[in-house]
Specification:
Elements lengths: L7 H13 L4 E4 L20 E5 L4 E6 L8 H4 L9 H18 L3 E6 L5 E2 L2 E2 L3 H16 L3
Parallel strand pairs: 3-4
Antiparallel strand pairs: 1-2, 2-3, 5-6
Helix pairs in contact: 1-4
């Protein structure tokens, strides 16, 4: 598995930076976006977003396979809420979508399947991949 800076997520967020002409914050958190409470964290843990561009009021979430398909590796843990990790991920994705918009930000979700994949990794072709990201971001720009 690639380290975080070499990950597909960082590659796509770097393309967003290039297209947007600004550097986004990676793994940004907000006090209003939290996971379920637990005995050790009664307010819930702050849920990170993949990329946040404050000046543009834009959040980008890069979704890999575990967001759309069962993943034994990611789903093997039990959660503080008593539900499976896959179900929790689905609920947290919905929570993010709702609360990001309720707090005046725009959300763009870029699914890994939008890119050419080989051996579970994006086949990096910056020209082609920039076009994919640009299309997703243009959908953001066209929303009111």
């Amino acid at each position: 598995m690639a380290g975080r800076p070499e990950s597909d997520e960082h590659y796509v967020l770097d393309l967003c930076d290039k297209i947007l002409g600004a550097s986004g914050r990676r793994q940004a958190t907000f006090d209003w976006l939290r996971g379920d409470p637990s005995p050790s964290r009664p307010l819930g843990t702050k849920l990170p977003v993949d990329g946040f561009w404050p000046g543009l009021e834009l959040v980008v979430e890069f979704q890999e396979e575990q967001h759309s398909k069962p993943s034994p590796f990611f789903d093997r843990r039990q959660t503080v809420s008593g539900i499976g990790r896959g179900e929790q991920r689905r609920l947290y994705d919905e929570r993010k979508s709702l609360l990001i918009r309720e707090n005046g930000l725009r959300l763009v979700v870029i699914d890994k399947s939008a890119f050419v994949i080989r051996s579970k990794r994006i086949m990096r072709d910056p020209g082609r991949d920039c076009a994919v990201v640009r299309q997703h971001l243009s959908n953001y720009a066209n929303r009111s």
